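Schema walkthrough. Field components (list of strings):
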Amino acid sequence: MKNPLPPVNGLPDNLPDLTEQHVETEAVVQGKFITLHTDRIRLPDGTFAHREYVRHPGAVVIAAFIDDDTLVFEHQYRYAMGRHFIELPAGKIDDGEAPLATAKRELQEETGYISDEWQFAVTLNPTIGYANEHIDLYIAKKVAFVGHRRDIGEFLEVFTLSMDDAVARIGRGEITDTKTAFSILWLDKFYRR
Amino acid sequence: MKNPLPPVNGLPDNLPDLTEQHVETEAVVQGKFITLHTDRIRLPDGTFAHREYVRHPGAVVIAAFIDDDTLVFEHQYRYAMGRHFIELPAGKIDDGEAPLATAKRELQEETGYISDEWQFAVTLNPTIGYANEHIDLYIAKKVAFVGHRRDIGEFLEVFTLSMDDAVARIGRGEITDTKTAFSILWLDKFYRR
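Field assembly_structure (string):
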């Protein structure tokens, strides 16, 4: 099967509906923290296939500005990757929690900073191939340090970087955590401080 | 436990070693396509905890330039998310495959474009909390259309957008697939065309 023509220029007005329909849930495999769902699905041409995915409660990432140009970062070990990462503060949404409440809670718990000036920026979808995770980016302005309340067993180092320093580190491939790198470049491009 | 002082300004020279040591593999849970690994680990303070994660073979994402200003995109349904997404071409690295070979293969298979001018741009880590996935961004210049070779059951619509159009859609929250959104902003900031 060959595509007879090159693609159109620009997002077409009449995009095809490529929806995959749920037919049945075939398996739910329970790990210690993660659950895998396998569904039998109907493809757009009427044939069948399987999709396996992780259901995720969603998360937030926080751009906490100490001043117009300085952000709060964390240095953390990530076991799945086997190394330390530079990250913006972030955390999972608890059951029934409003995302903004998660953002306020995680920022103070992890870094010791609070703010009276919060705004939603944008949503990211980091793993559309096999998980339904979304991450909401929130901006906290004029943050004040009151002391952290980390969970037992939560180890991280908090420090600050200027926007320019963070952007340069992304350019050099030193900040590769995608929620962090995307958020910094998004703010650099679209957020007027 | 309270942090006595606010964080230092700038990435500290002497960051603490927060490495989590593997103690034993406790469980390997096999889904249809995804495998969950649960390890017992030793935290930096000598106490123990569990980490569960997905091992991922790695992937590539491709910025395929038709001309200096126009990129090839895909419109695809993502079952885990329950909706369509605008994405750059991307795909998983096959066992033993070099990432650049994956990039060339996936670009032609999915979109029908080939190129003689390839370069590596940057690596992303989209899911450091629970998977070891890395995504290598490759740039393909002056791509030529020769016809796609999609897998059976692979449904997608190919189209093109100018860099400015894509960047504006990221600003408006219309492109939220993070590998795509990050790649576009990275190219907009750091890639001199």
